[in-house]
Amino acid sequence: MFRVKIVGAGQLGSRHLQALKAVKYPLDIQVIDPSEASLQVAKERYDAVESGVGHAISFATRLRDSDCTDVAIIATSSDVRRQAIDHLFDLSKPRFLILEKLLFNTRQDYAYAESRFAEAGTMVWVNCPMRVMPCYEHIRQELTSDRMSYRVTGSQFGLVTNAIHYLDHVVHLSGCGDFELSLGEIDSTPIKSKRPSFLELNGRLRANFANGTTCEMTCYPTGTAPILVEIFTENQRYVVRESEGKLWHAEASTNWVWNERVATIPYQSQLTTEIVESLLASGGCGLTPYASSVRTHLSLLDPLRELIRAQSCEVSEYPFT
Questions:
Q1: Could you name the domain of life of the organism this protein comes from (predicted)?
Q2: What is the mean pLDDT of residues 14-33?
């Protein structure tokens, strides 16, 4: 049996757990969370999924075993992720590790974690899953230019916590990881996040990439506008309406006639199945490597830190998750 650990059994952690039940290889799964209530919800969600594989599973409020770990998933909030990494690596250094984002709430934790991973010889990826969603990968394969205009609009979707997804996706599509963030159209007063003790922002973020690509993300503070993703090059246009599972595509070679096609967005409880199976079978997966994700995280968070400081907020360096 392969040994898998999930640290953090909240909303995302429990969805990762559901996905593990569908993995085709027999697993010995340990779920760790200090909250008994979260563990109970995770157990209920796990039990609700059918499986033809006889996995072993256990739930605990703290990690105690010092056995080997093949795959670990740390799905805590950003403010306790370093602590979770330390606890895991002190007892059981995993071969492969998947981290949720946003990664950490202080800058020093990024380098600290990298040193721990290197010391343990652990391969690490960050869960920015647009890279592995079939509809978006189809777009990437069709693109004839690495210079594009990428735009996201919607209401109350959590601008900062989701900006990392879109910025990472642009890095993946364009092959360019060097960008500068413009905050000129952001609402300068932070708002409370849906998650206690964290902050969020509304307004517009704009990233200008070194290869000429632009990424513009607009979050309206009110309303119910669904998220719309637009990807334009000089010869191609894509409009993705994720909530409807549809996209529209037009290009110069067909005289800009719009064509509709299916754009199914898989749930996390589906995506993690393939990711873990890939790790166990080949030692790799399509998620974002840690070093690349750190670069994108800091290019996003450092300018936002200055904005938060200007508001004299008594918060951590990066009060987002």
A1: Bacteria
A2: 96
